[in-house]
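Input/output pair, single chain:
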Amino acid sequence: PIFTILIVDDSAMMRAMLKRAVRLAAEDVELLEAGNGQEALRVLESCAIDAVFTDINMPVMTGVELLREMNNRGYTQVRRVVVSTDGSDARRDEVRELDVNLYIRKPLAPEMIRSLLQELGHAGISSF
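Output:
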């Protein structure tokens, strides 16, 4: 089965890097993207998403606001990964209450993607 990941980051370059790393690490993955939390909510409304990889600091709607709104709208089955340059304890505590499965600091090493996908329960991990 296809595992669908929504990558949410205001940096097109970061989205492209994450997409490339995921494609190298896994088979049968569909990748969608959004530039902020508001765009991400529109994608969530129109597609079945297995996991959201979100940045925290974005214009229009931040990653924290997105995660809160996902809870408000009942997207509790969607796995959540925060990918952020902000690794402070305060930030981690703030998102912990929002059902975040994993919190990863940028820059993200491509080798980390494979174990990250395994932790999220995706079975289609390719071998290098």
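The mean pLDDT is 86. The beta strands are 3-8, 29-34, 51-54, 79-84, 102-105.
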